[in-house]
Structures are given as structure tokens and as C-alpha cells.
UniProtKB/TrEMBL annotation, chain A:
Gene3D superfamilies: MetI-like. One of its GO terms (biological process) is transmembrane transport. Belongs to the binding-protein-dependent transport system permease family. This is Sugar ABC transporter permease. The lineage of its organism: Bacteria, Bacillati, Actinomycetota, Actinomycetes, Jiangellales. It comes from Phytoactinopolyspora alkaliphila. InterPro entries: ABC_transporter_permease, MetI-like, MetI-like_sf.
């Protein structure tokens, strides 16, 4: 256990402690950090752009739980018992094999002004061809959540299928004998028995959505005018664009605290409900 | 057995972690006896008169042109360049800053003038080049006007990597199809934009990312260049009526349909080539991008100096940008790097470099093969032109970042410019209060 602890300490704890220290300093990447106490935190919380960033991050959390988790569950439930179901799920899994940056590039091509989506809507005479998908807020955040869902739904479906296949046959058969099927079967038997797996999928989604960076950075760089910025983009902007390493450190500390707090709160609630059952 | 196994694993993990830590720190031990006989510029501690110099830049796409100059320098002065190019400017900036803390200091590297260079000078990271400048100005290899952008506390640092003048490139076929000619005045230019807008063709390209400042600098430098320069030094406010008027004019031009959609992700050179926009407001470095598409200067495209918005100004404002090529003060091969910079500013090197890039040169003695660029270079040196530093270099970094965000929002949704200008000014107030 000791070697693992040492490696974790050197590679994870030390950088975090260094970042936390920097967050109390003014440091532009040259010379020595200058201790300024809580000034970076004060500046961060008095910046109106942080509110936009927090709002967008909250939208990402809600959107990521509803869309890719929901679609993943739907695909899994509809296909897990189906003949050749794996072949139906395969196309949804393929996007997971590409990087977030590539997803951003592909969807930029689709969603840019006069891009593939607008041209397709125009060709079929459908409304929305004039929409500025990536320029108007909060529409730009919604469509980027859609782009991320395109990538993440498949792997969520795969996880849910594993969960569905591990459900014991007896209660399902018993429910069938009692006449349950369709929605009733899902709500009363499958969904409760999927609970442990759902906890994992939703927990992972919360963490992933709180640190959303790649898709947004490639598609809008948080703009226009910081309108689609997330906390991770704010952290990058302060650190590497502004070269305000201390300010960037403060954002990253807040992001870490928010991520940990959300994860712990969610897992505690889920575990206490399971004990209650 | 178990204990020994645990101890072995512990020792291995400790060694691995220690090695990682040392690699991450990579600090100079200060004794200089690293024993690297192949270190650039030195051989067993003795200076060499030929070899390879490490060179870093955020202009990764320019590698073929740097390779050509590297071949020329190897032939002429015995030194070639070991090229490392970054495509991401932010990652490059972080890399260069961090590399000063390590043993691997960047011997030669490209940077930005203005606030960015001042920061390195303040920390003593770049080697002074006053002697090179004095000699080059005396021999006419560098115009004295450029010196101000490289001077800090009376001393010069780095030398110009290049200069670029910001002009309007235009698609000659689009102009010919609509019976248009290059404008002589601002009214002529607006007439062209009106004519094209009526045909559904955006006259000008603009974007909401990075280059969102371009039309702000054009309109303000062409209306009131003194006010433009005062913004860069903190002596004027972004809420000045002159600045507000320029923003309103810009908004009117956007509303009139003069500009392309700022959300287009296509390359601007492709848009010009296809005739999807008629004109591009870009630095002369852009000539190379057009030539790479097979467009021919004088046949498919041409360029003109943008007329002043205010015709009563004595001289035409011409935006100029100059990027520095620097030597690290504490690099082992600093002296060789400074010799390289001396060669770099000379006419032979600049003839090779400017023609490889398809751009103008800061050196009036360089021979520019593109006749249009050569003529522009001569025009820029006349009394009829007032050279004005590009907004990107003229503006301190925190103010620039706020401005780019603000202008990006404005070109996307033009409206009341005051909230944007007040946000930029708040950033400027905070910055100048600390200077």
C-alpha cells in the first residue's frame, strides 16, 4: 500500500497543494509568487462573469444527467433483450472512441453559421435554419450539451445493459407471471434493481460535467463574450490566457471543492436511501 | 519474504517518484557540469563557431520557411536552427515562461512586443540587443521607427522577427464582376460595401474569436490615431466620446450587412478565394496563405492601404505589427544566439526570410520579389503614412483579454456599446492602477 500512497502523494496531492498555495498569491509565471491572502477569491466572486460560468456549469450538470444518461438508459432498456441488440447499440458506442476535441471539431462544422445543420433545415424547408446555434446564449450551451451527449450516450447504454443483464431472472419472471410488462415492469422491477448501477453512471456524469472543457473550448472558446464559459474554461482562461496563475488556482480550488461536495452529497444520499431500503 | 517484497516495491516506487519529481523540477544545479558535450553552442565547455541553436516559436505553421532560413544561415554563418513549433499560443507562452525555471532555457524564441516583452525584461530573462540595434540602424538595416517597440528603460531587447502591415486584400474577380475598383477614400470604400451588400455579398470578413479587434483598430486609428495610441498607454478612456462614436459606426456597418457572419468557421482565405467575402482586413503575412491556395497576386487578388475614416488627417494611418526574435539571457549559448540575431537583421537573411514567407521586410535593404509588397514597403516608409502599432501588441494583456471578449460579443450582437466599453475600462483602470 505504501508505494501507492507515495505515488498518489507525489503526483496528485503535491500538485493540488501547490495549486492551493498559488491561489493565495499573485504569480504570473515568472519570478516568485507574492502572498496576497484571499484577494484572488475576493476578485473571483466579485466578477460578474463567474456567475455566468457557474450558471453554465449548472446547465452542463443538469443537461448531462438528463440527456446522455436518459438516452443511454432508453437505448439499454429497448435493446438489452432484443435479438441482435448489440448491433443496435454499436453505432452509439463509436463516438466514445474519439476524443472530445474531435467531437468539438465535428460539431463545429455542423453547428457553425450556415453550417451543415442550418443548410439541412433550409433544404427541407424546416424552421431554425436562421438560428445562430453557437452565437446566442444559452442556446450555444444547450447545443454543446447535445454534442457531448452524442458522444457519451453509448457508453452509458453499455453500462446500463451490464446492469440489466445482471438482474436475477426470478423476480422478472415472477412479475411476468403477475402480468407486469412494459412501463410497469420497468418502473416496479427493472428501475429499482438498476439503482446501484444508476448511482455509478450518474455520479460519473456529475463529475464529468463539472469539469467540462474540451468540447466548449473547441467550439466557442467560452464565447462570444464569455457567454458559454464553464468553470473549467474560466480556470484555463485565467491561468494560460491571462497568465494569472494565482487567480486560475483560486478557480481550480473552487471547482475542486464544488466537484467533491457534489459527488459526496450525491453518493451519501444514494447510499443512505439504499440502507433505508 | 513478504517484508522484503514490500521493501523492494517501496524502494522502486520511491525511486520512480523521485525520478519523476526531479524530471518535473528540472532545475539547474548551478555547477554547469552536466557533461552534455552535444549541448548547442558549446563543446566540452568551449564556445564553438558553428552548430545548432535551439529555436522555439508559436508559429508552427511557418516551419518550412524557418527551415529555408536555417539552411541559409548554416551556409552563411555556420549555425542552423533546431525548430520546435507550437500551434497554441497560450500553451507556448506557458512553456516559455516555465522553461526559464529549468536548465533547458530557450536559446532563441519568438515572442510579442508590448506588455508581454516588458514582463520578460522586468525579470531579466531576455538578453539586451542595444549594440545590434545601433549597428543596424546606422547601416539602414532597421528603420529607427521600430526601435520604440523594443526599448525598455533606454535599452533594446530582441530584434524584429518580421513586420506586417495591415491592409485590405480584395478578390479582383468580385470587384470586376460588380464594376468596382480599389478605393481612394473612405467614402469610396463605403460605396463599394453598399454595392456589394445590395447584391448579398458581405464586403468584409470578421470573426468573434481572437481577431475581433481588427475593425475596432481600423476605425479608431483611421478616425483619431492620437486617441487610439492614448488608449494603449492608459491616457484615454474607452468611454471617451470618440471611442463610443467609433463603436456606433462599427455597429451601423454591421447592421448594414457589410460584414460576414462572425460565426463562420471557414478559413478567411477560402472565403475570399470563393468570393464569399470581397475583402479581408489582415496583415501582409496573409499573402502566403492566399498564394498557397493558388491565388495569384495582381490577377486573383490585390491589396490596398485602408483610407482614413477622417479625410482631414494629415497622414494615412497604417497598422503595423512587429514580432520579436529573442535570445535568453541565461542560455549557455547566449553569445552565439546574439551573433545569430546580428545576422538575422541583415539584408541577406531578410531577403531569404521575407521571400520565403511571401511578406514585406522590416529591412529596407532586403529585396522583395513580390512587386506589390515591395511597393507597399516603400509606401510605408514615406511621410504620407503614419505607422500605428497593432492593437494586439499596443494593449496590456488584461485589457486586451477583456477587449477581445467585448468585441467578440459586439460583432455577434451589436447594440449599445457602453456596457462593453465600461467593462474594458474597468479592466484598464485596474491594470493602470498597478503600474
Amino acid at each position: 500500500m505504501a508505494p501507492g500512497v507515495l505515488i498518489v502523494a507525489v503526483l496528485l496531492y503535491l500538485p493540488f497543494l501547490w495549486t492551493t498555495y498559488l491561489s493565495f498569491t499573485r504569480y504570473r509565471g515568472l519570478g516568485s509568487p507574492e502572498w496576497i491572502g484571499l484577494d484572488n477569491y475576493q476578485a473571483m466572486f466579485s466578477d460578474p462573469a463567474l456567475l455566468t460560468s457557474l450558471r453554465n456549469t449548472a446547465l452542463w450538470v443538469a443537461g448531462t444527467i438528463i440527456v446522455p444518461v436518459g438516452i443511454g438508459l432508453l437505448i439499454a432498456v429497448l435493446t438489452y433483450n432484443m435479438r441482435f441488440g448489440a448491433w443496435f447499440r454499436l453505432p452509439f458506442l463509436i463516438p466514445y472512441a474519439i476524443s472530445g476535441v474531435a467531437v468539438g471539431v465535428i460539431w463545429s462544422f455542423i453547428l457553425q453559421s450556415n453550417g451543415a445543420l442550418s443548410q439541412a433545415l433550409d433544404a427541407f424547408g424546416l424552421p431554425g435554419a436562421e438560428s445562430r446555434w453557437l452565437l446566442d446564449a444559452p442556446l450555444n450551451t444547450f447545443v454543446m450539451i447535445g454534442a457531448a451527449a452524442w458522444q457519451a450516450s453509448g457508453v452509458n447504454a453499455l453500462l446500463f445493459v451490464i446492469g440489466l443483464q445482471s438482474i436475477p431472472k426470478e423476480p422478472v419472471e415472477a412479475a411476468k407471471v403477475d402480468g407486469a410488462s412494459g412501463w410497469r415492469m420497468f418502473r416496479s422491477i427493472l428501475w429499482p434493481m438498476l439503482r446501484p448501477l444508476t448511482t455509478v453512471v450518474v455520479g460519473l456524469s456529475i463529475v464529468a460535467s463539472l469539469k467540462t472543457f474540451d468540447v466548449v473550448y473547441v467550439m466557442t472558446q467560452g464565447g462570444p463574450g464569455r457567454s458559454s464559459e464553464t468553470l473549467a474554461i474560466t480556470m484555463y482562461r485565467e491561468t494560460f490566457v491571462q497568465s494569472e496563475y494565482g487567480q486560475g488556482g483560486a478557480v481550480s480550488v473552487v471547482l475542486t471543492v464544488v466537484t467533491l461536495a457534489a459527488s459526496i452529497a450525491y453518493l451519501r444520499r444514494q447510499l443512505s436511501e439504499r440502507r433505508a431500503l | 519474504m513478504t517484508d522484503r517484497s514490500t521493501m523492494t516495491r517501496f524502494a522502486l516506487a520511491g525511486l520512480t517518484a523521485g525520478a519523476l519529481l526531479l524530471a518535473a523540477c528540472g532545475g539547474d544545479d548551478g555547477n554547469g557540469d552536466d557533461g552534455d558535450a552535444n549541448a548547442p553552442g558549446t563543446s566540452n565547455g568551449e564556445a564553438r563557431d558553428s552548430g545548432t541553436l535551439k529555436f522555439y516559436t508559436d508559429k508552427a505553421a511557418w516551419e518550412p520557411q524557418f527551415d529555408r532560413v536555417s539552411d541559409a544561415s548554416e551556409e552563411q554563418v555556420g549555425w542552423d536552427l533546431d525548430f520546435t513549433g507550437y500551434s497554441d499560443a497560450d500553451a507556448y507562452s506557458a512553456f516559455i515562461k516555465q522553461s526559464f525555471r529549468t536548465r533547458e532555457k530557450p536559446t532563441l524564441f519568438t515572442w510579442h512586443t508590448g506588455d508581454a516583452l516588458a514582463e520578460l525584461v522586468d525579470e531579466g530573462m531576455v538578453a539586451p540587443t542595444s549594440d545590434i540595434w545601433a549597428e543596424a540602424i546606422a547601416s539602414g538595416d532597421i528603420p529607427a521607427d521600430l526601435e520604440q517597440y523594443y526599448t525598455y528603460d533606454g535599452e533594446q531587447y530582441c530584434v524584429p522577427l518580421n513586420v506586417a502591415y495591415w491592409v485590405l486584400y480584395y478578390n479582383k474577380h468580385v470587384f470586376a464582376d460588380h464594376g468596382l475598383e480599389a478605393p481612394q477614400t473612405w467614402d469610396d470604400l463605403m460605396h463599394i460595401a453598399d454595392t456589394l451588400a445590395a447584391e448579398g455579398i458581405p464586403a468584409f470578413y470578421q470573426t468573434n474569436i481572437l481577431f475581433s479587434f481588427v475593425w475596432f483598430q481600423t476605425l479608431l486609428a483611421g478616425s483619431d490615431p492620437d486617441l487610439y495610441e492614448a488608449l494603449g498607454t492608459g491616457e484615454a478612456s474607452y468611454t471617451d466620446p470618440g471611442v463610443v462614436a467609433v463603436m456606433e459606426q462599427w455597429g451601423d456597418m454591421i447592421e448594414a450587412g457589410y460584414f460576414s457572419d462572425p460565426g463562420l468557421a471557414d478559413d478567411p482565405q477560402v472565403l475570399l478565394n470563393n468570393g464569399d467575402v470581397a475583402m479581408l482586413n489582415f496583415g501582409t503575412f496573409f499573402t502566403g496563405s492566399l498564394n498557397e491556395l493558388g491565388m495569384v497576386s495582381g490577377e486573383d487578388y490585390d491589396l490596398f492601404v485602408i483610407p482614413n475614416v477622417d479625410p482631414s488627417l494629415d497622414r494615412t494611418s497604417l497598422i503595423v505589427e512587429s514580432g520579436p526574435l529573442c535570445a535568453a539571457q541565461e542560455a549557455d549559448d547566449r553569445d552565439q544566439a546574439l551573433d545569430y540575431l546580428t545576422w538575422w537583421v541583415g539584408a541577406e537573411a531578410q531577403t531569404e526570410w521575407a521571400n520565403a514567407r511571401g511578406d514585406v521586410s522590416f529591412n529596407p535593404n532586403a529585396e522583395i520579389r513580390d512587386e506589390r509588397l515591395a511597393a507597399l514597403g516603400e509606401e510605408a516608409g514615406t511621410d504620407e503614412i503614419r505607422l500605428v502599432e497593432r492593437y494586439f501588441e499596443a494593449t496590456p494583456q488584461p485589457v486586451l483579454t477583456a477587449a477581445l471578449d467585448g468585441f467578440g460579443a459586439f460583432v455577434t450582437s451589436p447594440g449599445d456599446p457602453m456596457p462593453i466599453l465600461e467593462t474594458i475600462q474597468a479592466e484598464a483602470d485596474a491594470y493602470w492602477a498597478t503600474q
